[in-house]
């Protein structure tokens, strides 16, 4: 049951991030370079052999995706919604 719950949460977070990317591409929200890279799960690195900066996929962890999604998605809806990270529920979610 816990695996099913985590899968459901990850799916929801994925959709939220995709909506953020879509809104950014339509210039409905403005993302910093770091936010855009993180929400797309991309990272940049220097390829010394090829002497250029390259991009590669980077998988975020569940808690990173949770934070990103709930930090950026409310911007799409122009909402002031925030998560209370000091609550007992957040502590329990982290344990899962």
Describe this structure in words.
There is one protein chain. The chain has four helices and two strands. With about 100 residues, the chain is an alpha+beta fold. The protein has one domain (about 1-95). The chain is globular.
What characteristics describe this protein?
96 residues; alpha+beta; two-stranded antiparallel ribbon; 2 strands; single chain; 56% helix
> Could you name the ranges where pLDDT drops below 50 across 5 or more consecutive residues?
none
Alpha-beta content class = alpha+beta
What is the mean predicted local confidence, pLDDT?
A: 93
So how many helices?
4
Order of helices and strands: HHEEHH
Question: Distance N terminus to C terminus?
Answer: 11 Å
Spatial shape:
globular
Strand content is 5-15%
Give the biggest beta sheet: 2 strands, antiparallel
* Number of domain units: 1
Number of strands: 2
Q: Rg from C-alpha positions?
A: 16 Å
Strand and helix map with partners:
Elements: H1 2-25, H2 33-39, E1 42-47, E2 52-57, H3 62-76, H4 88-95
Antiparallel strand pairs: 1-2
Summarize the structure.
The chain is an alpha+beta fold and 96 residues long. It has helices at 2-25, 33-39, 62-76, 88-95; strands at 42-47, 52-57. 56% of the residues lie in helices and 12% in strands.
């Amino acid at each position: 049951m816990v695996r099913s719950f985590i899968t459901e949460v990850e799916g929801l977070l994925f959709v939220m991030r995709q909506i953020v990317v879509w809104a950014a591409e339509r210039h409905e929200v403005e993302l910093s370079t770091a936010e855009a890279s993180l929400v797309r799960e991309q990272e940049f690195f220097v390829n010394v052999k090829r002497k250029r900066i390259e991009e590669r996929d980077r998988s975020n962890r569940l808690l990173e995706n949770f934070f990103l999604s709930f930090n950026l998605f409310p911007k799409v809806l122009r909402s002031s919604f925030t998560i209370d990270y000091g609550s007992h529920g957040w502590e329990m979610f982290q344990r899962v």
